[in-house]
């Protein structure tokens, strides 16, 4: 099957999958389960593209394995983070703002939009799964190393934050220790990094350079759209956050600045 046909089949499967999650969110009355659907959606994209293409190249199997490991960990982490808590404040705010259009806008702006973005980010996976390619080489090794660094950074940042949130003494406080003293969003930095690692692995596939749309999409989303800007909007104006913001890099890890230094 051609690359375009595999991409179309993967996209159709992902949108059907997100429709199922929309129904579940509607019944449970909490749209934040879309965050769990994000990680497991990539597992579906990897499985469908690998099965539909019918090629099973070693590079595709490698990339799909990395995606499964990442997707399972992320979904389990978000489930553990949300267990016993109410709906995330970002989704709760939309529930209030959208009024009578809430159901339709949830379907289109939360679940369908997320599904389409998921497919874009997963393009390197579909490319690696769909096309025969040369034997694994040093470039693949470099990609795996970058993926491992990003995965470890994201997992460590998430674990540190989860332990912080579970401590009742930290209620209402900001997480500013561990990896969070070097970047305000170590989990986002790790996620972006690992997707660039996956793209590097696809570079050995003929035309694999064009799959750069995947890491570019996730980078743009996190830096400019639904990641850092949306999350930090809720903390704007808090004295402790403004001080943390002045002293700590938003994305790339770096040493914490002294209070008098400007970012």
Shape: globular
Total beta strand runs = 0
Structural class: mainly alpha
Write down the domain tally: 1
Q: What gap, in angstroms, lies between the N and C termini?
A: 51 Å
**Percent of residues in beta strands?**
under 5%
Oligomer: single chain
Low-confidence residue ranges: none
H/E element sequence = HHHHHHHHHHH
Average pLDDT works out at: 93
Helix content: 55-70%
How many helical stretches? 11
Sheet with most strands: none
Please describe the topology of this protein.
Layout: H1 3-28, H2 34-53, H3 58-82, H4 89-98, H5 102-121, H6 123-130, H7 138-166, H8 186-202, H9 213-225, H10 228-233, H11 239-247
Describe the 3D structure.
The chain has one domain. It has 11 helices and no strands. It has helices at residues 3-28, 34-53, 58-82, 89-98, 102-121, 123-130, 138-166, 186-202, 213-225, 228-233, 239-247.
Question: TL;DR?
Answer:
This protein has 263 residues and is an all-alpha fold.
Keywords for this entry:
single chain; 263 residues; mainly alpha; 70% helix
């Amino acid at each position: 099957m051609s690359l375009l046909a595999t991409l179309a089949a993967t996209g159709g499967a992902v949108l059907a999958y997100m429709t199922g999650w929309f129904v579940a969110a509607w019944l449970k009355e909490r749209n934040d389960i879309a965050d769990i659907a994000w990680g497991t959606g990539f597992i579906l994209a990897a499985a469908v593209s690998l099965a539909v293409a019918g090629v099973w190249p070693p590079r595709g199997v490698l990339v799909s394995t990395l995606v499964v490991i990442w997707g399972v960990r992320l979904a389990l982490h978000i489930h553990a983070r949300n267990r016993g808590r109410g709906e995330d404040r970002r989704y709760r705010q939309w529930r209030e703002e959208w009024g009578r259009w809430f159901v339709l806008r949830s379907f289109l702006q939360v679940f369908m939009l997320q599904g389409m973005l998921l497919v874009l980010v997963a393009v390197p996976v579909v490319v690696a799964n769909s096309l025969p390619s040369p034997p694994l080489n040093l470039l693949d090794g470099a990609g795996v190393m970058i993926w491992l660094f990003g995965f470890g950074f994201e997992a460590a940042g998430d674990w540190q934050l989860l332990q912080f949130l579970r401590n009742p003494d930290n209620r209402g406080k900001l997480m500013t220790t561990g990896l969070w003293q070097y970047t305000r969003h170590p989990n986002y930095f790790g996620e972006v990094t690992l997707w660039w690692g996956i793209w590097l692995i696809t570079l050995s596939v003929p035309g694999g350079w064009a799959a750069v749309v995947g890491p570019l999409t996730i980078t743009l989303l996190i830096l400019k759209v639904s990641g850092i800007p949306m999350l930090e909007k809720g903390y704007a104006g808090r004295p402790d956050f403004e001080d943390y913001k002045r002293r700590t890099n938003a994305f790339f890890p770096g040493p914490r600045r002294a209070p008098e230094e400007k970012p």
